[in-house]
Design goal:
This protein is mainly beta. It has a single domain, classed as 6 Propeller (Neuraminidase). It is about 5% helix and about 35% strand. The chain is built from three helices and 26 strands. Strands 1, 2, 16, 17, 18 and 19 form a six-stranded mixed β-sheet that branches. Strands 3-26-25-24 form a four-stranded antiparallel β-sheet. Strand 22 and strand 23 form a beta hairpin. It is globular and about 60 Å long.
Length: about 400
């Protein structure tokens, strides 16, 4: 079972969401669907064992001390020797064995300080870290945390995501809908001074606090999936391609059914709430998707069922059923499970590459990983009540 899902949004960010939610983003043409592949999955738990999919598990305990206590891990980026974590409103650097090294910059309003963090990425060519502030700024730092430069993103405000796409441009995703022709996607040059490309994509104006994008970068490919829609898009500077489309049978909602609700939201929050209730009741939506990861071989997603959206906003106090889907593109086979070995791989999946899948393991689930701790370490060595999360790498079997 999955824990109850409640989105906690700070007052500062909520005010932005409320303003931007008054202008809806509608589905528009411009997506190439000629290369789309259907991923048909029956949402029914299978008897999947750890050894069916993975050859080994490696656990990385993250150092716990007063200087590096973690509240909630957002994005995780690995380099050759370090692990960078986005934790609520800051970026931390750890060694690849979990030892804390330093913070990247710090929150504040002074020179070189950022007021708020929404996302971050690393320029692989230089190793420098770029921190995104939703108010229209990007701050660059060296790996040891030294401030380099602040860039202004004049294109729009309320940026949500940033990805170093290649050595010529950055990808950005925004919720800024000030004009009807605005789109969430913009590719900007490396100095964030000019928009090079922008695209229209089928983002549905259901509720801006729910309709977030799930991004996955693998090699030179960038994928986007959504909480409610079936499509997985590959986003390039020159075009947007519908690469995959989920088919959960009777549990799936098609893109076409969303269209009549793709209208601007009302100034009155109560009217928007009634609209949301009508949407979910009319379409019978009881599930949402998250933690999308895509490689050339696999697609991973978590599907959460029994979400009674038309009665609770966000869903609270509900017994939610989760399906973890690992779809093998080579063998055209989905693996659907609640957990592996009665408790493993039920946390947030924050990355996937050719070799392994990366999961965040919260302290209450450490007991399921006791046999995979680093040599010489036992659960008795860990203060579970105070410990930081661990990272677990699930290495794929080669076949």
């Amino acid at each position: 079972m999955c824990r109850n899902v409640t989105e906690l949004i700070s007052l500062e960010v909520f005010s932005i969401l409320l303003i931007t939610s008054l202008f809806g983003c509608t589905a528009k043409e411009g997506v190439d669907a000629s290369a789309c592949r259907e991923l048909a999955v029956e949402l029914k738990h299978q008897d999947v064992k750890l050894e069916d999919l993975f050859s080994k598990v490696e656990v990385i305990p993250l150092e716990t001390s007063d200087s590096c206590l973690i509240k909630e891990i957002g994005r995780v980026i690995e380099t050759d020797s370090f692990i960078y974590l986005f934790d609520v409103n800051r970026v931390l650097r750890f060694r690849d064995d979990g030892v804390f090294v330093n913070y990247i910059g710090r929150k504040g309003h002074g020179p070189g300080e950022y007021p708020y963090v929404k996302d971050f990425d690393i320029d692989k060519a230089t190793g420098n870290i770029y921190i995104l502030c939703p108010f229209g700024y990007v701050y660059s730092y060296t790996p040891d945390g030294r401030f380099i430069e602040r860039y202004s993103l004049a294109y729009r405000s309320n940026y949500q995501n940033i990805v170093s796409y290649n050595d010529t441009c950055w990808f950005t995703w925004s919720w800024s809908d000030w004009k009807s022709e605005d789109t969430p996607i913009a590719f900007v040059d490396r100095r964030f001074s000019a928009v090079e490309n922008e695209h229209s994509v089928p983002v549905h104006n259901i509720d801006v606090t729910k309709a977030g994008v799930n991004l996955s970068k693998f090699n030179d490919k960038l994928y986007a999936g959504f909480m409610f829609g079936p499509s997985i898009l590959e986003i390039r500077p020159d075009t947007v391609v519908k690469r995959f489309e989920w088919n959960f049978g009777n549990d799936m909602t098609s893109e076409e059914t969303f269209v009549k609700y793709d209208v601007p939201l009302d100034m009155n929050p109560e009217a928007n709430w009634k609209r949301d209730q009508e949407f979910f009741s009319d379409l019978g939506i009881k599930h949402f998707q998250g933690y999308l990861q895509v490689t050339d071989r696999y697609v991973f997603v978590r599907v959460t069922m029994n979400a009674d959206f038309d009665k609770s906003n966000p869903p609270q106090d509900l017994e939610l059923t989760c399906y973890r889907i690992l779809y093998d593109l080579k063998d055209d086979r989905p693996y659907v499970f609640d957990s592996l070995n009665q408790g493993m791989l039920t946390g947030e999946v924050k990355g996937m590459i050719d070799d392994y899948l990366l999961e965040v393991v919260e302290p209450e689930r450490f007991k399921f990983y006791k046999d995979y701790l680093p040599e010489g370490m036992t659960l008795e060595d860990i203060d579970v009540e105070e410990a930081n999360p661990m990272l677990a790498k699930f290495y794929f079997k080669r076949k």
